[in-house]
Amino acid sequence: MKRFTLQLHDSRGSDRFDDIVQFIAADGSGSFGVLAGHARMVAVLRYGLARFVDSAGHWRYLALPGGVLACADRRVR
Predict the structure, then answer these.
(1) What is the mean pLDDT for each group of 10 consecutive residues in the chain (77 residues)?
(2) CB atoms within 10 A of CB 62
(3) Geometric angle at alpha carbon 25, from 70 and 58, rounded to 5°
(4) CB under 8 Å to 57, separation ≥6 — which residues?
(5) Options 2.60.15.10, 3.90.950.20, 3.40.50.980, 1.10.10.10; which CATH number does 4-76 get?
(6) Which residues pair with 41 in a beta bridge?
(7) CB of 3 within 8 A of CB of 56?
(8) Rg from Cα positions in the chain
(9) Is pTM, for the whole model, over 0.85?
(10) Cα separation, 70 vs 76, whole angstroms
């Protein structure tokens, strides 16, 4: 299974998660998922929950106040 790196940034710092298989969030048009190899894209994330799963099958959840997601070169930020 292909994997990508997820980088999270906020005013207090940043975190990096490697070996991510899928990221799921929502923007103004609804929910969407990102897999490794996804086309380049930018989305304005809405307030709510996002989630991602690593290659070991462990899900993590993020409470988002909103934000911007950029997907390119096997990296999601």
Answers:
(1) 94 96 97 94 97 98 96 92
(2) 15
(3) 105
(4) none
(5) 2.60.15.10
(6) 71
(7) no
(8) 12
(9) yes
(10) 6
Instruction: Give burial (CB, 10 Å; 0-12/13-18/19+) of 20.
Output: buried
H-state helical runs in the chain: none
If DSSP states are collapsed to H, E and C, what string results for 50-62? EEEEECCCCEEEE
Place of tokens 């997601």: 69
65-71, Cβ contacts within 8 angstroms, sequence gap of 24 or more: 68/42, 68/43, 68/44, 69/25, 69/27, 69/34, 69/41, 69/42, 69/43, 69/44, 69/45, 70/41, 70/42, 71/34, 71/38, 71/39, 71/40, 71/41, 71/42, 71/43
